[in-house]
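Inverse folding, one chain.
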C-alpha cells in the first residue's frame, strides 16, 4: 500500500501539471471503488479551477473554488498525467480532463481506493476529521508523543502505525525508524523513556524526509505520477532484510509478525 512518502511523491508529481488548470469534465468508467464515485462530482467540478493540490495523511486533496476532490490510492491506485491519445489500460477507472486536454488518470486494479467530493472543509470530512498530526509537522514532537504513549501498552510499532497516534508512519517506515532509534518493536509503548521518545520522533522525520526526497519506496504496485517506480527501497536498512546482516553489527536481521504485519529488527541493536 502506498504510504505517506509515496502519496507525497504523487502529489508533487501531479501538482505542476494540474494546479491552476480548469476541469473540463470528469469521465467515470467504473464508479465502483471502495466507495462509489458520486455521480454529482461531474457537475460540481465542471469548468472549475484547481486552486491547490494538497495532501492530508494519505489523501490527496484537489481544492477547487467550490469544494474539494478527495482521492485515496488504496492498495494499488496510481495517478498518471496523460493526454487524449494515451491508450486506455485495464483498470483505468476515471479521467479528470483539464484544459489543453491534459488528463489526470486514475488506475486501480484492486479498487480499494476512492475518489470523493465535498463542498465543505475537507479537514472536517468523516475520513479526515479524526486523524492525528502529520509526522513532519511541528505538532508531532516528543512532548506530544510522550502523552500519546503514556497509557498505551501495545507494542510501540503497532502504536506508531495507528492513525490516531500519527498519520503516515506505515509498516516500512516504522521498522526503519525503530531500528535507527535502537528500540525493539515489541517494547510496550508506555515503557519508552523520554530520551527514546525524542530520538524516535527525530528518526521518523528523518526517514520520511529521506524517502520523500528519493521519490517514495519501491513497492510492487506503486509508481510515481509519470509511471516510474520510486527509488528508496535500495536504501532500506532492515525492512525486508530477513537473515541479512545488520548494517550496524552484522547480526542477522529477524522477522516477526506484529499486528498481522511483517516486522524486521536487529535483536542485538534493538534489545
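Residues assigned per position:
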Amino acid at each position: 500500500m502506498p504510504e505517506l512518502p509515496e502519496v507525497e511523491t504523487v502529489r508533487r508529481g501531479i501538482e505542476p501539471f494540474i494546479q491552476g488548470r480548469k476541469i473540463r469534465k470528469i469521465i467515470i468508467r467504473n464508479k465502483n471503488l471502495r466507495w462509489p464515485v458520486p455521480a454529482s462530482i461531474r457537475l460540481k467540478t465542471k469548468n472549475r479551477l484547481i486552486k491547490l493540490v494538497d495532501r492530508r495523511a494519505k489523501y490527496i486533496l484537489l481544492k477547487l473554488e467550490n469544494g474539494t476532490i478527495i482521492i485515496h490510492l488504496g492498495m494499488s491506485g496510481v495517478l498518471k498525467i496523460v493526454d487524449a491519445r494515451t491508450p486506455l489500460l485495464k483498470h483505468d477507472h476515471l479521467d479528470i480532463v483539464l484544459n489543453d486536454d491534459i488528463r489526470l488518470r486514475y488506475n486501480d486494479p484492486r479498487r480499494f481506493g476512492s475518489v470523493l467530493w465535498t463542498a465543505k472543509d475537507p479537514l472536517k470530512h468523516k475520513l479526515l476529521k479524526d486523524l492525528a498530526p502529520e509526522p513532519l509537522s511541528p505538532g508531532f514532537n516528543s512532548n506530544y508523543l510522550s502523552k500519546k504513549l503514556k497509557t498505551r501498552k501495545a507494542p510501540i510499532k503497532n502504536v506508531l502505525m495507528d492513525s490516531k497516534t500519527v498519520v503516515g508512519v506505515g509498516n516500512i517506515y516504522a521498522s526503519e525508524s525503530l531500528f535507527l532509534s535502537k528500540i525493539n518493536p515489541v517494547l510496550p509503548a508506555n515503557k519508552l523513556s523520554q530520551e527514546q521518545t525524542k530520538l524516535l520522533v527525530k528518526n521518523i522525520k528523518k526517514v520520511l524526509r529521506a524517502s520523500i526526497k528519493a521519490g517514495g519506496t519501491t513497492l510492487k504496485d506503486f509508481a510515481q505520477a509519470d509511471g516510474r517506480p520510486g527509488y528508496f527501497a535500495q536504501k532500506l536498512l532492515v525492512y525486508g532484510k530477513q537473515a541479512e546482516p545488520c548494517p550496524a553489527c552484522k547480526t542477522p536481521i529477524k522477522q516477526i509478525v506484529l499486528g498481522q504485519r511483517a516486522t524486521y529488527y536487529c535483536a542485538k541493536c534493538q534489545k
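Confidence is low (pLDDT under 50) at residues 218-222. Residues 9 and 215 are 6 Å apart (CA to CA).
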